Amino acid sequence: MRPVSLALHEFRFAQKVFWRNPASVFFTALLPVLFLLIFATIFGDDTIKDLDGVKVTTYYIPAIVTLAVISATMVNLAMNVTIAREEGLLKRGRGTPLPPWVFIAGRVGNAIVISAIMLVVVTLIGKLLYDAPIPWDRIPAVVVTLVVGAASFCCLGLAMTVIIPSREAASAITNAITLPLYFLSGIFIPENEIPDGVLSFANHFPVRDFFEAFFTAYSPKTVGSGFEWGELAVVAIWGLAGLVIALRYFRWTPRS
Question: Which end of the chain is more exposed for a tag (fewer CB within 10 A), N or C?
Fold first, then answer.
């Protein structure tokens, strides 16, 4: 089989494994939707004056999309690749004619497709339940933000496997990194409720920049194309750094 065909086979296999795993489906696909429903119920039709009067429900659409993409890419890859490594699956794979990059490409492709599905699902729920506007005239900005962010956080997820020592530690370490950043970056709490110093600290990490890029693309108050090239550049730089770390230190053999 050609390498591309092998990669497509790995992608289809990763898709089957994901959708047949109740835990993966719940935490990656259902939990972000539950967060959206909870936050929209709590805050209702309130507006955020500091953001030109944007409705809270409109604010939470890009926020939850950001969370869903990070969950599908960085968190999903960090945990599942670590588990595959510790169970010896990666080591056995290296002993076959299968090129190593094919295994990674299949799982990265799976993560990006799930990210795209979640973006569509969250956007449609926002429109149907809360009349949140769909940014039809800024779709290119939404798509570019998704692609740059998903690819970058995939690289960061592979880099995270370097610091995860065992399958038991995978969930704890990924959650310890991501959950605080969700709170600090305005994902769970509207940014007008977060102290400036905390937001300044969050600006040092890619979650905040990724969310700002999505928010600009989704906000009905945005004038222009909706591209946030500065924020996207920061996210891409983080992704490149993650790729360098993964290429240098990624392990195919169990650590524990």
Answer: C
SS3 140: helix
pLDDT of residue 114: 98
* 75 phi, psi to nearest 5 deg: -65, -50
- Looking only at the bridges linking them, the beta strands covering 54-55 and 47-48 are antiparallel
Q: How many CB atoms lie within 10 A of CB 225?
A: 14
Q: If you count DSSP H runs as helices and E runs as strands, how many of each does the chain have, helices first?
A: 12, 2
| Cα 40 from Cα 60, distance rounded (Å) | 8
Per-residue pLDDT tens digits for 200-219: 999 999 999 999 999 999 99
Backbone angles phi, psi at 226, to 5 degrees: 90, 5
pTM for this structure?
A: 0.94
**Both structure tokens of 159:** 């880099």
